[in-house]
């Protein structure tokens, strides 16, 4: 065996011995340069369109790479390399497809280009340049042989990578199952799913798209690059995400930035994308969208299959959360019924008995001519009667929680229900043009004013904002007090409704960028042409959430 043959065989064995695909490609390029004596060597990995998605090179300095900015796109002369043979040139600048060197590119003349084929498809192209005396036919044959060895190494690396990724996907699946069994809150479970999916899929960003206001679907969970800007993003009803949801089958896109029909400009910053529907019993509950930076490798079928499986588990997370919520509602209704019975059977009867004793005492005082004391007892008796009326109204409200009620009463109910999660009663203040609604005879007129000025659609959002604000304080703020103020100011398009939720807790954690509830409130504000903000309160201790919308 001659020296050249031995060197080629050794190089082929060395190239084929690498399981990590990055190491295999870099070793391939380095061996090709050594065998031929070329000063420059590079491998351009191609995507399905024939564009360069990865570029491995030796010979060009880091300073030159920085000046050039981006690797060759694989067009012109490089694109002229045959799919089944080498391209051998003494002077590449004389080739008809040569388009010139970009500024800062080192001069090159002798050239050898070889296709690298994997499964009968061109995986990439090997470029060699600047060999003293030029490249020979023997160099071309040797590089074709080395390319075949590299193809075997690339295929082995792919199989190894797929097996390793499958293990990672299975690990993620097990973690999700454990999280679901532990009864983790819906938002925390979905945040964990998004973070782990982004990691295991080598994605730069992971989004979870869920039902939002009305018929809209929006990004409720976001993790990774650009997460803050993508939270609350509303997806078009005829877009790819909704198509995946309706058809119940995932989809891969080689590059969002090249799509002609991309309706969301916020996604134009990404390349490869993978859509996986969150299906449960044939019904779509949401969509998981995995995104990679422009120029990153495309997703493959194994990624799609595993992502669809995990998306099903994410749908199950929503189902379990809904079941827990239904159980909580049932317990709440039972508690309402018990409180109603206790109020009716115990409190009212006790007040009746107390009222009778006060009446007897009042009559006795009046008979003795002690008019002043009799008057005081009369006032106390009126207070007892008013308390009985209020308790009866509360009992009626507890027994019929779903009947149509005015906005003021709905807000009071939310404040009452929040006691369970907060551990104390929040402060609720409702005012109309600065006049606070108090529990007196003038209340009914102001209550009617609130309902007349705030239409039903905005009223639903106001209730949702108050509910989420107190829920957020209970889950994240660790506050000892919460104050909610709802102000109705002015009339019609020039008027507005303002909701402020303030607490004395830990304040806003700047490291937490994923809170789907807050993103939902921002989306509700945008829908009405309003605003939403959350930050530190005026005292610098705790947080202040402010939401407002015009009265249209």
Automatic annotation (TrEMBL):
An MF annotation (GO) of this entry: phosphorelay sensor kinase activity
Record bears the keyword Kinase: yes
InterPro entries named among the record's database cross-references: GAF, GAF-like_dom_sf, HATPase_C_sf, HATPase_dom, Sensor_HK_TwoCompSys, Sig_transdc_His_kin_sub3_dim/P
Cited SMART domains: GAF (SM00065), HATPase_c (SM00387)
Gene3D superfamilies recorded: 1.20.5.1930, 3.30.450.40, Histidine kinase-like ATPase, C-terminal domain
Keywords noted in UniProt: Kinase, Transferase, Two-component regulatory system
GO cellular component: membrane
Pfam families hit by this protein: GAF (PF01590), GAF_2 (PF13185), HATPase_c (PF02518), HisKA_3 (PF07730)
Domain Histidine kinase/HSP90-like ATPase, first and last residues per copy: 457-552
Protein name stated in the entry: GAF domain-containing protein
Organism (species): Georgenia yuyongxinii
């Amino acid at each position: 065996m001659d020296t050249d043959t031995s060197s080629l065989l050794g190089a082929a064995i060395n190239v084929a011995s690498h399981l990590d695909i990055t190491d295999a490609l870099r070793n391939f390029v380095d061996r090709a340069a050594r065998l031929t004596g070329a000063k420059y060597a590079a491998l351009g990995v191609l995507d399905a369109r024939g564009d360069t998605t990865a570029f491995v090179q030796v010979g060009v300095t880091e300073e030159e790479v920085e000046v050039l900015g981006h690797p060759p796109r694989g067009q012109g002369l490089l694109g002229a390399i045959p799919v089944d043979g080498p391209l051998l040139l003494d002077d590449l600048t004389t080739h008809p497809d040569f388009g010139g060197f970009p500024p800062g590119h080192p001069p090159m003349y002798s050239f050898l280009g070889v296709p690298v084929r994997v499964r009968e498809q061109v995986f990439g192209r090997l470029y060699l340049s600047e060999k003293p005396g030029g490249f020979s036919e023997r160099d071309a044959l040797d590089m074709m042989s080395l390319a075949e060895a590299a193809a075997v190494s690339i295929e082995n690396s792919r199989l190894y990578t797929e097996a390793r990724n499958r293990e990672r996907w299975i690990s993620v699946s097990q973690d999700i199952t454990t999280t679901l069994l532990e009864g983790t809150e819906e938002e925390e479970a979905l945040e964990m799913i998004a973070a782990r999916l982004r990691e295991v899929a080598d994605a730069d960003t992971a989004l979870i798209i869920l039902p939002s206001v009305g018929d809209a679907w929006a990004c409720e969970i976001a993790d990774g690059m650009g997460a803050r800007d993508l939270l609350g993003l509303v997806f078009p009803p005829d877009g790819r995400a909704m198509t995946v949801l309706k058809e119940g089958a995932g989809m891969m896109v080689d590059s969002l930035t090249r799509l002609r029909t991309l309706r969301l400009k916020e996604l134009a910053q990404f390349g490869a994308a993978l859509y996986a529907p969150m299906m449960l019993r044939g019904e779509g509950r949401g969509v998981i969208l995995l995104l990679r930076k422009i120029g990153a490798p495309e997703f493959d079928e194994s990624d799609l299959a595993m992502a669809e499986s995990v998306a099903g588990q994410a749908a199950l997370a929503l189902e379990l959360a809904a079941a827990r919520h239904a159980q909580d509602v049932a317990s709440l209704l039972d508690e309402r019924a018990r409180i109603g019975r206790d109020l009716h059977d115990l409190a009212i009867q006790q007040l009746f008995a107390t009222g009778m004793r006060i009446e007897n005492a009042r009559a006795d005082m009046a008979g003795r001519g002690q008019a002043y004391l009799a008057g005081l007892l009369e006032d106390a008796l009126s207070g007892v009667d008013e308390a009985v009326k209020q308790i009866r109204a509360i009992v009626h409200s507890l027994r019929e929680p779903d009947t149509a009620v005015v906005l003021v009463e709905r807000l009071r109910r939310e404040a009452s229900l929040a006691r369970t999660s907060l551990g104390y009663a929040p402060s609720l203040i409702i005012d109309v043009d600065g006049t606070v609604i108090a529990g007196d005879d003038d209340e009914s007129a102001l209550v009617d004013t609130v309902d007349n000025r705030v239409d039903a659609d905005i009223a639903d959002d106001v209730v949702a904002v108050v509910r989420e604000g107190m829920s957020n304080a209970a889950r994240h703020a660790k506050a000892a007090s919460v104050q909610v103020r709802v102000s109705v100011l002015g009339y019609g398009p020039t008027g507005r409704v303002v909701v402020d939720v303030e607490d004395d807790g830990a304040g806003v954690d700047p490291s937490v960028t994923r809170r789907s509830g807050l993103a939902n409130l921002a989306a509700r504000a945008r829908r009405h042409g309003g605003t939403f903000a959350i930050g530190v309160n005026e005292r610098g201790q705790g947080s202040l959430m402010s939401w407002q919308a015009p009265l249209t």
